[in-house]
Write a structure and sequence with these properties.
Structural class of chain A: mainly alpha
CATH superfamily of the largest domain in chain A: Butyryl-CoA Dehydrogenase, subunit A, domain 3
CATH class of the largest domain in chain A: Mainly Alpha
Shape of chain A: globular
Structural class of chain B: alpha+beta
CATH architecture of one domain in chain B: Up-down Bundle
Radius of gyration of chain A: 21 Å
CATH topology of the largest domain in chain A: Butyryl-CoA Dehydrogenase, subunit A, domain 3
CATH class of one domain in chain B: Mainly Alpha
Number of strands of chain A: 6
Strand order of the largest sheet of chain A: 1-3-4
Helix content of chain A: 40-55%
Number of domains of chain A: 3
Oligomer: heterodimer
Order of helices and strands of chain B: HHHHHHHHHEHEEEEEEEHEEHHHHH
Number of helices of chain B: 16
CATH topology of one domain in chain B: Butyryl-CoA Dehydrogenase, subunit A, domain 3
CATH superfamily of one domain in chain B: Butyryl-CoA Dehydrogenase, subunit A, domain 3
Helix content of chain B: 40-55%
Number of helices of chain A: 10
């Protein structure tokens, strides 16, 4: 795959493009937070990013989101772009993130690119502490006990009616990448056509209102082949790489969402008076805002340090640790921002409550902090 | 913990633990000690819910059982449906909600502030403080549905200023006819109207109120008062037939606050909108408009300029039940997590066998039990102190959110599924950190109430 290394100037120009898009097109579409952006609008805006080259759905790598994770500047671009998009609409940023990862996988495996999705979670999270053993070496399952193998094979089985996978995405898509794990084969990637799947739209979501949670399971009688190139070792590396980028992206999106919540709270505190002074002058409010700022700042620092591709379990565990530590802080930051607004913050037309729900959802996708902590602890035992 | 759960066979055990019948198990080992020791120390296994219920006096044990049964039978089946309905227009609640209110009225849950024959509380129950009874009920209702609970409890809050005036004439004229209607299944609800636009917390604490320009003002007219202005975020204000409305007298400040009994059919009164909220969606938060609403002198509750005192006393009574809401939500989250951990298997093994899962569940159980103890301890009085009520309110609701977060972490992305009820519990509970004074205001209220003690500790200059 040909590399398209960015220069600093390229990076600045690309980020400015994304910033303009977010402040104009995306901001207009998300002006009423209590009315989620309709799927058609979201899809049209995703189309604009494709036209702009920010999202690359072609078979050749370019300078789009997650096009070249080996290039630190491209990674920096992706993380900044996702934050910028999430500042206006975390759901939109999530959709773009997942599409970009699916495109990356398609290009890496030589599969046709398109409006694909990728699922990086089993039917029950990550399989708890059994996961790290399957990612340790090049030999599948080398470090996996029989009990862990049973857990992994269960958690990462092909989706069935009673063990479906969940995608959170726009309702209209055609193919999805799904990883599975089996004791005798290790990791395996499947590119499943929607026509081979039963898709159940879920009517209510906790957050990311712009998207629809969908339970997917294989239609009866469908036996999907593994993608041609996916030998176990290579599949394992793809899983490592994509899981790392997915986690970094989730953290970036949550950071963008929390930063927006903080901005709304800061503006409100500079306007609302209580007992005479502006509420920003009350210690109770200053403390809430101060702590929220600290959390966002910590996430910024962490994101700036994670521009390395995840080529090993150790690097993936670093991301697990960062996510486990920072997502709860970002949720707290969004919650503290809501608290500054008081009763108004609880109302859906103010937007902060949505950002809190979004942060909360992002905390739980791709492994909850508890599970990520267990996984990273297990990795220490194995390495 | 469901009180109806049949306990498992003592021969079995979770991974990492001994069965109760093993000779090394503490309970089995106890059997080898003397009869006296066994008599003093032995106990039978039981659910935590039953163990804690047994600590209450018998009438309150019955109340707890009744409240749970009503919540399970009437509130639980409607909870997710009401939460997911589109926002309904003001004054047009869904049939499911009207049915629930009629059931609650007939069952006596809307008239239990007074003993029979005036209200529906038994005299045995009535020997115990109103706030403790209220906390027991609120916890059970919250555990099942925050929105329906709030609608039922906002009614109690609306009645509180009338009850606090202690005026038998007001009880006879305003409360008893409404109670008769409620017991027939007619929804004559009350609401408590203090909050004004742009001044949420100002009316919850004295320092803010001292600087506040009142938003609803009463102007003297022949035979009564004309109310003008707006109130906002009034729980149940869109469905209430009677409202206890706090207004300043024209030309005076907040010290003149007076409580007026306003009927929803009085000309000039209107519920203009209800808010689209994050949670507690079965209960409307209404904006109320007062346009020259004539309130006769006979509808002034207490006396003129006694509104602030009534408001603060009401908050002392209502903040403990808000703490109890936190307990109910924490219990809901704990119960959901327990069920999930026991019913979900991975690799053929229930999640509850994992030590990490057991640690998480233990933390949830302990935190929930601890905040319940704080509420029950604080509510064992007819006149809770401001410090006690505020402390319980902010601490229990903050802890409840932590418990819910733990439960969500345990369920992972399954917690996001509406049908699991946990994400609704999260959204519902989040309001308890805000209303009845934000938790920051309540922290300061605790300090305000302990000023004498703190001032005495300052060394003289």
């Amino acid at each position: 795959m040909e590399s398209h290394r960015l220069t600093s100037e390229d990076l600045a120009a690309l980020l400015e493009t994304v910033q303009r898009f977010a402040q104009r097109s995306l901001a207009d579409a998300t002006a009423a937070p209590h009315q989620p952006m309709p799927p058609a609008t979201t899809a049209a805006l995703v189309g604009q990013l494709l036209d702009m080259g920010v999202l690359n759905a072609t078979e050749e790598p370019a300078c789009g989101l997650w096009d070249d994770p080996q290039d630190p500047l491209q990674v920096e671009f992706a993380l900044h772009a996702l934050q910028t998009l999430a500042h206006q609409s975390p759901g939109f940023a999530y959709q773009v993130h997942v599409q970009a990862l699916a495109n990356l996988l398609s290009r890496s495996t030589g599969a046709p690119t398109g409006p694909d999705l990728v699922v990086l979670e089993g039917w029950l999270g990550l399989g708890r502490r059994a996961l790290p053993g399957t990612l340790l070496g090049t030999v599948s399952g080398a470090a996996t006990s029989p009990e862990d193998a049973a857990r992994m094979a269960d958690c990462w089985c092909l989706p069935t009616a009673d063990k479906p996978r969940t995608v959170v995405a726009l309702p209209d898509w055609s193919t999805v990448w799904i990883p599975t794990w089996q004791a005798d084969k290790g990791w395996c990637w499947h590119r499943l056509a929607r026509t081979d799947l039963v898709v159940q739209m879920q009517a209510h979501a906790h957050g990311l209102d712009e998207l629809v949670p969908q339970r997917i399971s294989l239609r009866a009688g469908v036996v999907p082949p593994a993608a041609d190139i996916c030998a176990a070792d290579e599949s394992s590396l793809h899983f490592l790489a994509l899981s790392g980028l997915y986690g970094m992206g989730l953290l970036a999106i949550a950071t963008g969402a929390a930063r927006r919540a903080l901005a709304i709270a800061t503006d409100y505190a500079a306007m609302r008076r209580q007992g005479g002074p502006l509420i920003q002058e009350h210690d109770a409010v200053a403390q809430l805002l101060g702590e929220a700022r600290q959390s966002v700042r910590l996430a910024d620092t962490a994101l700036a340090s994670t521009t390395q591709p995840t080529t090993s379990l150790a690097l993936l565990a670093d991301i697990w640790q960062l996510r486990a530590a920072l997502h709860p802080l970002l949720c707290t930051a969004a919650s503290q921002s809501m608290q500054v607004l008081g009763g108004i913050g609880y109302m859906r037309d103010q937007g902060v409550e949505k950002l809190l729900r979004d942060c909360n959802q992002l905390r739980l996708l791709g492994g909850s902090p508890q599970e990520l902590t267990l996984c990273s602890a297990q990795k220490e035992l194995l390495v | 913990m469901n009180p109806s759960i049949t306990l498992s066979n003592a021969m079995s055990a979770l991974d990492g633990h001994l069965p109760a019948t093993d000779v090394l198990s503490p309970r089995a080992a106890l059997q080898s000690l003397s009869a006296i020791t066994r008599g003093l120390m032995a106990y039978q296994p039981d659910t935590l819910w039953n163990t804690e219920t047994a600590r209450l006096p018998a009438p309150l044990q019955r109340l707890r059982h009744h409240a749970r049964a009503f919540a399970q039978q009437e509130l639980a089946p409607r909870a997710l449906q009401l939460d997911a309905l589109p926002h309904w227009p003001v004054g047009q609640p869904p049939e499911a909600l009207k049915d629930m209110l009629a059931c609650a009225g007939r069952a006596g849950w809307l008239t239990d502030m007074l003993p029979a024959p005036f209200g529906s509380a038994s005299w045995r129950e009535y020997r115990h403080p109103l706030v403790l009874r209220s906390c027991i009920k609120v916890e059970e209702f919250s555990r099942v549905c925050g929105g329906q609970m709030l609608l039922l409890c906002a009614h109690t809050l609306g009645l509180a200023p009338i009850l606090l005036t202690g005026n038998p004439n007001d009880l006879r004229r305003f409360v008893l006819p409404a109670f008769r209607a409620l017991q027939r299944g007619e929804p004559h609800l009350f609401a408590f109207a203090i909050t004004e636009p742009g001044a949420g917390s100002d009316v919850e604490e004295g320092h803010g109120a001292a600087q506040l320009r009142p938003g609803v003002v009463a102007r003297r007219v022949d035979g009564g008062w004309h109310l003008n202005g707006r109130k906002c975020f009034i729980s149940g204000g869109d469905m209430a037939r009677s409202l206890t409305v706090f207004a300043a007298l024209e030309g005076e400040g907040m010290a003149s606050w007076t409580c007026f009994l306003v009927r929803s059919d009085m000309p000039g009164f209107r519920a203009t909108r209800t808010e689209l909220k994050m949670g507690m969606r079965a209960s409307g938060a209404a904006e109320l408009e007062f346009d020259n609403v004539f309130v006769p002198d006979s509808h002034v509750l207490g006396r003129l300029r006694k509104g602030w005192a009534l408001n603060r006393q009401t908050l002392n009574l209502s903040r403990l039940p808000v703490a109890a809401m936190g307990v109910g939500f924490a219990q809901a989250a704990t119960d959901i997590a327990l069920d999930y951990a026991c019913r979900t298997t991975l690799g053929g093994r229930a999640l509850v066998h994992d030590q990490a899962v057991q640690l998480c569940l233990a933390q949830m159980l302990a935190e929930t039990s601890t905040i319940r103890a704080l509420v029950w301890q604080g509510a064992r009085t007819w006149a809770p102190r401001q410090s006690t009520a505020s402390m319980a309110k902010f601490h229990c609701t903050d802890v409840a959110m932590r418990v819910i977060t733990l439960a969500m972490d345990l369920l992972g992305s399954h917690a996001l599924d509406h049908s699991q009820r946990l994400e609704k519990v999260y959204r519902d509970c989040r309001l308890t950190q805000i209303f009845e004074g934000t938790n920051q205001i309540n922290r300061l209220a605790l300090i305000e109430d302990q000023q004498e003690e703190l001032l005495a500790r300052i060394p003289p200059a």
